Amino acid sequence: MSELKLVELSASNIVAANTLTLKPGQEQYVAPVSHSIAEAYVNPSTAWPRVVLEDDEVVGFIMGNFDPEAAEVEFRGCIWRINVAADAQGHGVGRFAVLALADEARSRGFDRITVIFEPGEDGPAAFFDRIGFETIGETPYGETIAALPL
């Protein structure tokens, strides 16, 4: 496996990030990267959009939110979105991105990061479990809330 690198979302990588293709069936569990780009534009002081590069090719996208004053504790230090290209899944790209976000959260003084996702057969529950997230609750819409202690 080549070396992975995390870089800021920028004009030079935004198109590649926006065209990441997931495995069939995964689309129902994550909004398109374009939604994250819009959210980052609207929330520039708290959004943390990054792409994962492998040999200068965009293979993943992650966006965190760092807002210690957020009314809902689940949104103070959290993963808003993670997308990994279908052909890069299973190669450590997602783990790399999540652990980089966790390092950033730790450097900002957070003691955990959270993620909210829809449960389902093709959903991300097993991925987050493998990294060490533990279920801490459920939203009123039936989504899982999980946390990773830092």
From TrEMBL:
What highest taxon heads this organism's lineage?
A: Bacteria
Q: Cross-referenced CDD domains, in alphabetical order?
A: NAT_SF
InterPro entries the record matches: Acyl_CoA_acyltransferase, GNAT_dom
Where does the chain cross the membrane? none
What sequence ranges are listed for the domain N-acetyltransferase?
A: 4-150
One Pfam family per UniProt: Acetyltransf_1
Question: Which PROSITE patterns is this protein grouped with?
Answer: GNAT
User: What is this protein's record name?
Assistant: GNAT family N-acetyltransferase
Q: Which organism is it from?
A: Herbiconiux moechotypicola
